[in-house]
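queue> pop job 88
queue> type: inverse folding (structure -> sequence)
queue> payload:
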């Protein structure tokens, strides 16, 4: 436990702590533009420099470990002038356009310049000719705004393992982007938006769909409905100064009604529907695997383990990197796409409208959902199932554009029938949640008993460990599923694509075997999605996760198969899970993609 002083304040910290973190423990803020806690500390921006007694030069506090007896000064004239010079140089070549930049209210460069008291730029130098890239449905890149902090490079390579972004060229000509000046659409980019979530400026942002939604709301010929993903309710409040983890479900519903949507529904309804389809698919695969032919294999069965399919960045990752394993993916569409297909068929029939007259908007924590909605196979209803996707950040901007005082709104409830859901659907937002929701239903179908975990929570697969696993032995069954008696069901959960890759390689090598695996693209699951309020640290993830569990535990119904609206949907329209109609509307296929 080294002891040091920071601005004459004595501090005792754990060995390996950085000077920046030691200062934070002393209640002192050191500005930075490239640092990401637990992710990146490379000293690239030089904004966090401090004086250390005995050091010849100023040092980057984020990358310097503390030492016994160290004396640190964070606010000397030399430090202040150095920080101002660095930020002014960044501003001199930054294509700011602050008046119309989508990141203007949330720009870290702007905030640091204001904090340092910069009122003019002393270095009106040349600007590099950096490209813009609008090639993908999910993300926009404006490299004129890039400050070369390398945050996006780190999350794309180290956290997600996708490697779409790198620093190209040298010196003044350096740009961050795909190799050989390719656009994102031309390389292996899963469009998860983690780069946009960590970018301190407006260099990478989500593709804006707000204009499309306003246009639909202003069109009298359109019946405009909205669905909200479970992760939104635990994060939207942060855009209106609520602490992370504040549940704002009721106020969110009220805000959407005031924006003019004709129906305010819940993606949770479709999450419950997903569990019925996906759980039945898992049981079908298990049955086929156990009823083998003489060679010990059933060549007509889809293989195990079965992977979840509700995270579109993960699906694209598999199509690029493991196309030979896509038959392990569940054929279920994501809840977003299931909702769109049901809204434009079942719901359309109920209200007497044509599918093409209904406009479905989604509020999602994920930028990849924008990409997913435009996949050509997502048209089971005969038209595009989902018309526009807004991130959590975009919804907040839309609420502010409408002049709605979010904090003054009453709590309102979702509309029926597509707004009714269970607690199992809520936990889709968290890493491990889809798996837990599936187990709650599958276990009860097979055994006739409730899942044998305290408060229905499967603790081994909760939390922020990168790869988690659990197993449970089926000791009792109802007669229909007697062939599963004695089977030990093995499941695994991964979040973040680097962790998913690790799990896949273990399976391919034979080092690990499972029956069912949940993968979420983003760290923490959907609560840490690329479209959520910035910045999402582990502390913020934990607060949002806890809020989602509170939402689940407060529900009267906590298992997807108990949802009365889903039961009614099958009785009136779909028939049975995995039936002909549900296969057409709710299931999909995958394609092999090149790796560039």
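queue> result:
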């Amino acid at each position: 436990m080294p002891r040091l002083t920071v601005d004459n304040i004595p501090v005792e910290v754990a060995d390996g702590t950085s000077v920046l973190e030691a200062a934070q423990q002393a209640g002192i803020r050191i500005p930075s533009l490239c640092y990401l806690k637990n992710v990146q500390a490379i000293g690239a921006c030089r904004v966090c420099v401090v004086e250390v007694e005995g050091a010849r030069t100023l040092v980057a506090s984020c990358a310097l470990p503390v030492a016994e007896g160290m004396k640190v000064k964070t606010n000397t004239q030399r430090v202040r002038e150095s920080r101002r010079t660095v930020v002014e140089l960044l501003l001199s070549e930054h294509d700011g356009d602050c008046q119309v930049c989508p990141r203007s209210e949330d720009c870290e460069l702007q905030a640091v310049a204001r904090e340092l008291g910069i009122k003019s730029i002393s270095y009106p130098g040349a600007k590099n000719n950096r490209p813009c890239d609008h090639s993908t449905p999910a993300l926009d890149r404006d490299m004129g705004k890039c400050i070369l902090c390398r945050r996006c490079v780190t999350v794309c390579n180290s956290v997600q393992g996708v490697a779409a972004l790198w620093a190209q060229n040298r010196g003044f000509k350096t740009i961050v982007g795909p190799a050989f000046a390719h656009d994102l659409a031309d390389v292996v980019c899963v469009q998860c938006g983690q780069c946009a979530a960590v970018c301190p400026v407006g260099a990478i942002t989500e593709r804006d769909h707000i204009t499309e939604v306003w246009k639909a709301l202003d069109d009298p010929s359109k019946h405009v409905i909205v669905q909200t993903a479970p992760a939104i309710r635990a994060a939207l409040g942060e855009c209106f100064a609520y602490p992370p983890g504040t549940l704002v479900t009721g106020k969110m519903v009220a805000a959407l009604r005031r924006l003019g949507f004709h129906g305010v529904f819940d993606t949770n309804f479709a999450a419950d529907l997903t569990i019925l389809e996906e759980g039945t698919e898992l049981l079908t695969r298990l049955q086929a695997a156990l009823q083998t032919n003489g060679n010990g294999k059933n060549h007509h069965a889809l293989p195990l383990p079965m992977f979840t399919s509700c995270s579109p960045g993960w699906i694209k990752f598999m199509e690029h990197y493991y196309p030979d394993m896509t038959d392990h993916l569940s054929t279920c569409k994501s809840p977003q796409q299931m909702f769109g297909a049901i809204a434009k068929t079942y719901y359309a029939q109920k209200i007497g409208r044509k599918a093409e007259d209904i406009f479905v908007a989604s509020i999602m924590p994920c930028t990849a959902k924008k990409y997913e909605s435009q996949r050509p196979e997502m048209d089971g209803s005969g038209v595009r199932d989902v018309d526009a996707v807004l991130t959590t950040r975009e919804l907040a901007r839309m609420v502010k554009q409408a002049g709605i005082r979010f904090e003054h709104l009453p709590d309102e409830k979702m509309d029926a029938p597509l707004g009714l859901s269970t607690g199992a659907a809520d936990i889709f937002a968290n890493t491990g949640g889809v798996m837990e929701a599936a187990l709650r239903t599958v276990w009860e179908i097979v055994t006739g008993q409730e899942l044998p975990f305290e408060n229905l929570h499967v603790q081994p697969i909760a939390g922020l460990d990168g790869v988690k696993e659990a197993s449970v032995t089926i000791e009792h069954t109802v007669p229909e599923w007697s062939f599963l008696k004695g089977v030990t069901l093995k499941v695994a959960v991964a979040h973040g694509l680097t962790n998913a890759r690790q799990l896949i390689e273990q399976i391919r090598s034979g080092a690990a075997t499972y029956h069912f695996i949940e993968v979420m693209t983003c760290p923490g699951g959907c609560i840490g999605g690329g479209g959520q309020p910035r910045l999402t640290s582990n502390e913020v993830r934990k607060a949002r996760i806890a809020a989602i569990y509170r939402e689940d535990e407060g529900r009267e119904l906590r298992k997807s198969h108990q949802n009365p609206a889903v039961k009614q949907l099958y009785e009136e329209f779909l028939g049975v899970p995995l039936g002909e109609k549900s296969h057409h509307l709710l299931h999909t296929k995958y394609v092999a993609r090149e790796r560039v």
